[in-house]
Predict the structure.
Amino acid sequence: MTDETNIANQASDPVLLNARHPASDEEWMQEFQQGSAEGFSILFDRYKQPVFAFFRRRIVDRAAAEELAQETFLALLRAQSRYRPDRLFRVYLYAIAYKILNRYRRKTAFRAAFLGMPDEHIEPSTNPSVETDLAIREAVRKLDAIDREILLLRQFDLLSYAEIAEVLELPVNTVRSRLFRARAALRTLLESSPRPTIAPLRAQEQL
Amino acid sequence: MNPATHPVSPQDIMAFLDTETFGKEALRVENHMRQCVECTALAAHLCGTSAMLAEWTVPPIPQHVEDAVLAAAASVNASRTNPKASRTTPLTFRNWRLWTIAGSGAAAAILGLVAVAVSLEYHRRPDLNTLPQTQTAAETDARSASIGGAMQADALKPAPPPSQTARYSSANDTTPAAPQAAVMIARTVALGIQVKDYAPARTALDAILARHRGYAASLTLNTPENDARTFTASLRVPASELDAALRELRQLGRVQTETQSGEEVSQQHADLAARLHNARETEARLLAILQQRTGKVDEVLDVEEKISDVRGEIETMEAEQQELEHRVAFASIDLQLTEEYRAQLGTRTPPVSTRMHNAFVAGLGHASATLLSLALFAEEFGPAILIWLAIAALPVWIVWRRYRRALLRA
């Protein structure tokens, strides 16, 4: 992991940001609805990196991920009046992001159905971190679509089962069972991965 | 895992590790894991998977994305503080656009309804609309005085009276090719009048017909429930009396529509007279042959048969000629009297049960008609639709399959 990435992940960590700004997301969103520019600024600082990571982990095209992250916050700006304080802001934001992601996927698939698949192959880098990323990405990609979404939302976005269920509009029990299935499948896929960087992780775990 | 030896499920362990279990449930899972090596190994597996995934890092968000979002946020804030600017903000514009779309939709719906209403009205009065000229009531009122005179002056000049045309119907006419003294025109008038009361209007109509030596070819009175009575009549009056009769008819009430037309039948009459003249000459020659010459019985019978045929043609043509001359001698007036409708309180209406019964029967009729229409549609267009579906199935399936694949890859 590079220093730049570490700094970015720490700077955008909602836990650390919440420590600096004790008010909850919902309160800041209400402030923003009432005209406070600071409200949106705080929320953007808290969620800009998680939202960008949300798209970056799901879309190979970096430019598209940037565009969709930007579009998510613009949609939040437009839809500010429709936000209800009784709903968790995080769930509201991820629901927007998930809708935008699905729309992008449908559009891309529709285009690909007529124009053919774009070449998404990524050249392996000499950087071991990128190598590991590719291996994990390939393994995650082989999961069932819903299982994959549940796993990513839980693992990287730290959403609770109930929050995942709300974003994906699924029962909580379904989220729980599918998450377990996804983790088991991913484990199998990663263990069978030929990437050399996975092996040390396995050895480390056994210790 | 055996539920007897493992009172907690693997999913419970996963939920425990994800801090999704609380209280007694969490304590129960924790206690079991302390005693169970298998479940501890499962927990280590799950943690290992999470550790592997944690290696998947993402670079920081680019600065230009941050700048673009913050600029948009600043624009939204500026529009809040400045009400005029808010008119151009996306949110306000969106509302305005919605209103515009809704207004346009409503206007289109109203236009559609008006078009349908006009179309229905057009089809409801085919008799008046198919006539060559239609005047509104106001125009008719304003121009009623000049219509007769203007039409008399030119093409619609009244045909000669029966006495003048009598020579055409003469059975002994031998000069059909002679120049005609007058143009023969069959006149037709359609008149729609709204009257206050039907009964006095009807009496006055009879008097007008008697005064002008006309007659009614057909009469129809329609008395619908909860609607105005309408009286339709096909009148015949001598052509010379037409204008006077029309003037009096217009006095019956308010003229709503009036249409006049004239058909020139001079050439048709002349052709008929010539054919009639030739047929009579043929008949005369055949009679002479039969009287002056003798021959075989077959030949005599053959001549008599031809005389019979010619006689039949002559009688048919004479009837046509008389009908044509009658159309010229007597103008036709299609009159429609509409009584002013006055709604009355306490009119006798059927009881509710009867009305419900009628509505139910009508509903059944409509439902069966709809089903029948659907069946007929399926029968008529079903095979063609199936053919088109079969043609389109393969490309649609190919595109759908590519779409699904691309969606999975995305």
Notes: Strands of chain B lie at 185-195, 215-222, 230-238, 254-264, 330-339. The longest helix of chain B spans residues 352-409. The two ends of chain B are 36 Å apart (CA to CA).
